[in-house]
Design brief:
CATH class of the largest domain: Alpha Beta
CATH architecture of the largest domain: 3-Layer(aba) Sandwich
Structural class: alpha/beta
Number of helices: 19
Shape: globular
CATH superfamily of the largest domain: HUPs
Strand content: 5-15%
């Protein structure tokens, strides 16, 4: 039998809703290994801290002896978004899916125990689906039931199109639960409808309906919107240590306690003390953010690397210094190549794409610092010129390269 403290930690910390809470606790107390379902469509190759909230819960349950079943949605990811509503769900080739999945799994196992995880590819069953199978699957539900989903209901009322293929997505996700005989499915609060469809389909197929475990949505570093790569308010689990630490230090003060609650093992008593101290202004928020940034960076690296990131932040960001050890780029190659600033930023890892590079330039976030200390903001995506050995290119607050001879 699990003690009340453990039950409370599993069912309350970093949890938005459990359906059904009492049944889930009963299953935990029985002690039999539960099959914990987590599915993902590999339309993007990376994981950020918003995903980690749920992954930490999976890890906690693994440590109690339960089994994670990770479903790679390789079949549905190749369909993309048939409605044209979402630019984040493009139609992907099989090669794209496999590449994204490999990256995702590498990130996933930074948090979840690989030895207690079974990875299943969705195409194992959907690759053999016939038209008869599709018709049989759709016969379990009505269109009226699916129009109860909030986004479908809104679009239907506003006479905006809903593709038939879209109505299949919840069914396909639900069928995944049937195929692996899921005991518990994990997802965000925005997945509630789909998770409930899985529960109902299992019951229709004669299985015990899965419990539904929903995590809260983590607000991004902008303090406003859900953490998302497309909104550039995210912290990736493969962020460079200095960038991870620095991004966490940029959090608005009002997010400090929730980040500690969802992403660390800080005790409830300490959380209450933090909230009180912040409210009464009896503590400097920066000291709490430094602790938070150090703890989270250490989770994905180690103590020495995390302490190095902390020292870098104090020297470079707070002290305004240029780091001693930064990448170098040969000046001669740049002059001969007549390279534009946007291409330079992408080629040297200072921006992820040309569009991001141009955005940074337009925001005056790119600076050239001469060896004498003069600072020039780059304000147009022109060909690089008037560059000399010893110049440092600074992007944002945390990215640098030094120009050298050769």
């Amino acid at each position: 039998m699990l003690d009340d403290l453990t039950i409370d930690r599993i069912t309350r910390r970093g949890v938005s809703e459990i359906i059904s809470h009492d049944e889930f606790v009963r299953l935990l107390q029985l002690g039999n290994p539960l099959r914990l379902k987590m599915g993902f469509d590999p339309s993007r190759p990376d994981i950020h801290l918003g995903h980690v909230v749920g992954l930490r819960k999976l890890r906690q349950l693994q440590e109690l002896g339960h089994q994670v079943i990770l479903i790679v949605g390789d079949w549905t990811a190749q369909i993309g978004d048939p409605s044209g509503q979402s630019a984040t769900r493009p139609m992907l080739t099989h090669q794209d899916v496999v590449s994204n999945a490999e990256s995702y799994l590498r990130h996933f196992f930074k948090v979840v125990d690989k030895d207690r995880t079974q990875v299943v590819w969705q195409s194992e069953w959907f690759g053999k689906f016939t038209l008869e199978d599709v018709i049989r699957l759709t016969s379990n539900f009505t269109v009226a039931q699916f129009l109860e989903r909030a986004d479908f209901d809104l679009r239907f009322k506003n006479h905006r199109p809903i593709a038939i293929t879209e109505l299949l997505y919840p069914l396909l996700q639900a069928y995944d639960s049937v195929m692996i005989e899921s005991d518990v499915e994990f997802g965000g609060t925005d997945q509630k409808f789909n998770l409930l469809v899985g529960r109902e389909l299992q019951e229709k197929e004669g299985q015990r309906p899965q419990q539904i475990f929903m995590m809260p949505i983590l607000v991004g570093t902008d303090g406003v919107m859900k953490m998302s790569k497309s909104l550039d308010n995210y912290v990736s689990v493969e962020e460079q240590p200095n960038d991870m630490y620095g991004k966490l230090m940029s959090l608005p003060d009002e997010l400090i306690v929730s980040y500690f609650e969802y992403l660390t093992d800080t005790t409830d008593e300490e959380l209450a003390d933090m909230a009180r101290d912040l409210e009464t202004q009896s503590i400097n928020p920066i000291s709490l953010k430094k602790r938070l940034a150090l703890e989270i960076t250490e989770q994905f690296y180690d103590e020495i690397v995390a302490l190095g990131a902390a020292a870098h932040f104090e020297q470079v960001i707070q002290g305004g210094s240029i780091p001693d050890e930064i990448p170098t780029v040969g000046v001669r190659q740049l002059i001969l190549g007549e390279i534009r600033w946007s291409r330079f930023l992408v080629n040297n890892g200072l921006a992820e794409s040309s569009s991001e590079a141009k955005r940074l330039i337009n925001q005056h976030a790119v600076e050239k610092i001469s060896s004498s200390g003069d600072i020039l903001a780059i304000d147009s995506d022109s060909v690089m010129k008037d560059i000399n050995p010893g110049d440092v290119i600074k992007v944002g607050k945390r990215r640098f390269v030094r120009l050298v001879e050769g």
